[in-house]
Amino acid sequence: MCQIREIIFVLTRVTLPQYRRVSADCYTGIMLRNPAEKSLFVLLLVIILLAGCGGLNPFCGSARPKPVLTALAPNTATLAQVLPGLLITVNGSHFVSSSVVLWNGASLPTTIISNTQLQVTITTTQIPGPGTGQIVVHTPPNLSGDLGCDSGGNSLALTFTVT
Hints:
Order of helices and strands: HHEEHEEEEEEEE
Strand content: 25-35%
Radius of gyration: 22 Å
Distance between the termini: 44 Å
Helix content: 10-25%
Number of helices: 3
Number of strands: 10
CATH superfamily of the largest domain: Immunoglobulins
CATH topology of the largest domain: Immunoglobulin-like
Number of domains: 2
CATH class of the largest domain: Mainly Beta
């Protein structure tokens, strides 16, 4: 939920780290004596308010987007195809160089083709017989500190079927 007091709190922590928050509704010590300090604080507040709730946070420049998984190629295979190792192309968006493919929660060696395509090989180590596996793309966060930014995370899962 986007609330003005949270935005002001983030701004105060970033631009004026020497001041402390007493409670969620009460800020003390914000006495901006320096005109440059006042201008910066007001400018940052206006930028965030214009962006609106859920808009771009100017403090999140290094944040990695959450990956989006759209398709698997192939999305089904026979056990005979998996035995020697089957190359799967994972299609989506917002992939970065540190994104990895998870098979039922376990990380697989992942080849980055582009920001929209990854490749992995599955074998009978992942699926020893007919069944299904959940494929997810995970991107680790890339932020230090708490600036109210989301970074990285897991895509929604797609199911791979072995017959």
